[in-house]
From TrEMBL:
Gene Ontology biological-process entries: carbohydrate metabolic process; tricarboxylic acid cycle
Catalytic activity of the protein: oxaloacetate + acetyl-CoA + H2O = citrate + CoA + H(+)
Family affiliation: Belongs to the citrate synthase family.
Descriptive protein name: Citrate synthase
Native source species: Dankookia rubra
Annotated Pfam families: Citrate_synt
Keyword annotations: Acyltransferase, Transferase, Tricarboxylic acid cycle
Record-annotated active site: 261, 312
Species classification: Bacteria, Pseudomonadati, Pseudomonadota, Alphaproteobacteria, Acetobacterales
Keyword Transferase set for record: yes
Length: 375
């Protein structure tokens, strides 16, 4: 047969229907359940958005209270997981630590192998609640620090700062963090979400799907870009050399992290909102270096290459200015994206068909197996 069209990277392929979110490249916009992400970011808490992604509608006051009560009561991780985390190599990347911790939570979960919709939802709730605790435990254990206990009275954002940094910052910082969580929560069939759906399509359980999603998110072409952006900004270090540094990247035909997108070719609607909050963080910390270098890079990339920044570009410096160490940036993305991944796992499970594409073979034609002496 004739070679079929190969959609390498599945570029432009519609692999399924979905009602979780919608990407509109023509207008560079993204909606969750029909609401523009930038509107959700300005007006809602991350907990409201998590509820929206899992139920298709925003919660009313009573529903939100119940959702918050449920998640905040599930934040503790088991003594067994705490012990295992203390045994992790102290130089392990926090993404590998959270991937392993989520996989371990699958061993412990009383409903681990139950893939009914109700059980998958209960497990997602537990993971959503426990992931920040596990991230913080691994981070602190690697530094030889005590693991802090989650406080059920804290909001999602307060809890993350309390667990990782041991303090709850001022409201502007909490708001900027919450905005990042909302913007990171969901983004249609990106690599990690599609991975989670692929795992689900075989009938495997939620912990397997999320573990695989985390593995996929780590890569620098995907979620790992937020860390790569900050490493890049630090390597440049001084706005005065930003142009020259960028030119050397162009000369080497190297990627510039935090730029470009598979779907958005003329801008990412999440960027202006995240940039605004990153700017606020620069004001809070009284350090404009990173935003100034960012501005120069964004201007030059647009004029010289016509490539726009993606969400990771402002999120990286925003997290840095909030006081998080760089290797925590992609784990923070996990703490948010668990909501989108789980929504897709529910959707895939509700109308499943095994995902199993074809490959066009390019290896040797069929041939006899030679005896050992003839090889
Ligand atoms: N730096 C330099 N050139 C770039 C970049 C970049 N960041 N992104 C795209 N290009 C060039 C690319 O080399 C190609 O040029 P040419 O046509 O001459 O070969 C052209 O722009 C079109 O790009 P593409 O390779 O067709 O894009 P893609 O859809 O295959 O890849 C991408 C998308 C996000 C993997 C890529 O833009 C990239 O590697 N960006 C840097 C990493 C990054 O920031 N990733 C975060 C992605 S978005 C959010 C997330 O998942 O967290």
């Amino acid at each position: 047969p004739e070679k079929p069209t190969i959609y390498k990277g599945l570029v432009g392929v519609y692999a399924d229907v979905s009602s979780v979110s919608k990407v509109m490249p023509e207008t560079n916009s993204l909606t969750y359940g029909g609401y523009a992400v930038q509107d959700l970011a300005e007006t809602c808490s991350f907990e409201e958005v998590a509820y929206l992604l899992w139920h298709g509608e925003l919660p009313n006051a009573a529903q939100l209270e119940a959702f918050k009560a449920e998640t905040s009561s599930q934040r503790e991780i088991s003594p067994a997981l705490q012990r295992v985390i203390r045994e992790f190599p102290h130089d392990a990347h926090p993404m590998d630590a959270i991937r392993t911790a989520v996989s371990f939570m699958g061993l412990e979960d009383p409903e681990a192998g139950d893939v009914s919709d109700a059980a998958q939802r209960r497990k997602a709730m537990r993971l959503f609640a426990k992931i920040p605790t596990a991230i913080a435990a691994a981070y602190r254990a690697a530094k030889g620090q005590e693991v802090a206990a989650p406080d059920p009275k804290h909001s999602f954002a307060e809890n993350v700062f309390h667990l990782i940094q041991g303090r709850v910052p001022q409201p502007e910082v909490l708001k900027a963090f919450d905005v990042s969580m909302i913007l990171y929560a969901e983004h249609t069939f990106n690599a990690s979400t599609y991975t989670a759906r692929l795992v689900t399509s075989s009938g495997a359980d939620l912990h397997g799907a999320i573990t695989a999603g985390i593995a996929s998110l780590k890569g620098p072409l995907h979620g790992g870009a937020n860390e790569a952006v900050m490493h890049m900004l630090k390597e440049i270090g001084d706005p005065k050399i930003a142009r020259e540094w960028l030119q050397s990247r162009f000369d080497h035909k190297a990627l510039v992290m935090g730029f470009g997108h598979r779907v958005y070719k003329s801008g990412d609607s999440r960027v202006p909102t995240m940039r605004k909050y990153a700017e606020k963080m620069a004001e809070v910390v009284q350090d404009r270096t990173w935003m100034e270098i960012s501005r120069i890079l964004a201007d030059e990339m647009l004029t010289k290459k016509n490539i726009h920044p993606n969400l990771d570009f402002p999120a990286g410096p925003a997290y840095y200015l909030m006081g998080f160490e760089i290797p925590l940036f992609t784990p923070l993305f996990v703490a948010s994206r668990i909501t989108g991944w789980a929504a897709h796992v529910f959707e895939q499970g509700a109308d499943n068909r095994l995902i199993r594409p074809l490959s066009w073979y390019t290896g040797p034609e069929q041939r006899p197996v030679p005896p050992m002496a003839a090889r």
